[in-house]
């Protein structure tokens, strides 16, 4: 009965996936849909504060003030893409928060690869998804803390699904699943696939079971030189992995150096 009531508020594309999102991803998950909203992450952070259950998913068709990493904006044309945020209440993950970003980016990468087997789908550290070296999806993770403990976390995901043109001046060249695979994609099936994959990986990281190997297999630049730029240099060097603090390890001529998000840029040209 509750599912029926919730379904009434959902658009057609989400309607068919909603029962399985509510039933399988997390036991108490619920879909909160808004036709237009400034940012699903902002609403999810508010709901988190108000006590929303783990697994609550905030979805919109038109995000008018989407936020990205490092204070950037996330643009997505209305009705063509996926813009959603997942509320989590992870226990004992304070020291391994980067594993959450690994799980989210891996679930996105694998769900996209599942639809476009011929495309080169990679995770660009820390959590951009590339198709054929163009950005197709991004993740913004925000947490609320109580002292040293995480009260809750919001995993915000934007995927360019059916959009075919992008504004000039984006930080990275952009693409969509439709452009890269040559056919339109069903957004309802895609969100369901992403969340089902994420729920399995989330269980693993909560139990401290490593997903490292799978992550490295699809990591952009892993053991192959890629163009990089940092405060005091630039060049083509291989990525060796990511340490427990979530810092990327690069093999420079003088030795291995670790960088955090603000310190290094991957140049996609
Ligand atoms: C990035 O690549 O910089 C991260 C982009 C994250 C965008 C998503 S869209 C849904 C959620 N709500 C937001 O305001 N941002 C994230």
Task: Describe the protein in words.
With 269 residues, this protein is of the alpha+beta class. The chain has helices spanning 2-8, 12-15, 18-25, 40-49, 97-115, 177-181, 187-206, 212-217; strands spanning 31-37, 57-63, 66-67, 73-74, 82-88, 121-124, 128-131, 134-146, 149-159, 226-230, 233-237, 239-242, 248-252, 255-259, 264-266. Helix content is 29%, strand content 31%. A hairpin with a 2-residue loop joins strand 7 and strand 8. The longest helix has 20 residues, at 187-206. A 7-stranded mixed sheet has the order 1-2-5-9-8-7-6, with helices on both faces. A 3-stranded antiparallel sheet has the order 11-10-15, with no helix packed on it. The chain has a 3-stranded antiparallel sheet with strand order 12-13-14, with no helix packed on it. Helix 3 (18-25) runs parallel beside helix 7 (187-206) and helix 5 runs antiparallel to helix 7. Residues 1-7 have low confidence and may be disordered. The chain is built from 8 helices and 15 strands. The N and C termini lie far apart (52 Å). It binds biotin (BTN). Biotin (BTN) is lined by residues 39-41, 63, 66-69, 72, 74, 83-85, 128, 138-140, 156-158. The site of biotin (BTN) has 20 residues, from helix 4, strand 3, strand 5, strand 8 and strand 9.
Average pLDDT rating: 92
Low-confidence stretches: 1-7
Strands side by side in the biggest sheet:
1-2-5-9-8-7-6
- Structural class of the helices, strands and pairings? alpha+beta
Strand content: 25-35%
């Amino acid at each position: 009965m509750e599912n029926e009531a919730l379904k009434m508020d959902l658009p057609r594309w989400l309607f068919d996936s909603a029962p399985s999102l509510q039933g399988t991803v997390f036991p108490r998950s619920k879909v909160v849909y808004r036709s237009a909203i400034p940012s699903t992450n902002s609403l999810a952070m508010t709901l988190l504060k108000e006590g929303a259950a783990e697994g609550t998913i905030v979805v919109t068709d038109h995000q008018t003030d989407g936020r990205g990493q490092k204070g950037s904006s996330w643009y997505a044309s209305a009705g063509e893409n996926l813009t959603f945020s997942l509320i989590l209440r992870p226990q004992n993950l304070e020291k391994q928060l980067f594993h959450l970003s690994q799980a989210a980016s891996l679930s996105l990468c694998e769900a996209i690869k599942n639809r476009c087997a011929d495309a080169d789908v990679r995770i660009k550290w820390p959590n951009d998804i590339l198709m054929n070296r163009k950005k197709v999806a991004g993740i913004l993770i925000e947490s609320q803390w109580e002292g040293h403990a995480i009260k809750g976390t919001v995993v915000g995901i934007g995927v360019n699904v059916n959009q075919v043109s992008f504004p000039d001046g984006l930080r990275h060249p952009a693409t969509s699943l439709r452009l890269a695979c040559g056919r339109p994609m069903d957004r309802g099936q895609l969100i369901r696939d992403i969340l089902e994959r994420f729920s399995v990986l989330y269980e693993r990281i909560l139990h401290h079971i490593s997903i490292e190997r799978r992550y490295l297999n699809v990591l952009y630049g892993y053991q192959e030189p890629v163009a990089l730029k940092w405060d005091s240099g630039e060049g083509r060097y291989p990525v060796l992995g990511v340490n427990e603090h979530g810092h990327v390890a690069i093999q420079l001529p003088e030795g291995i150096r670790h960088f955090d998000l603000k310190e290094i840029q991957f140049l996609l040209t």
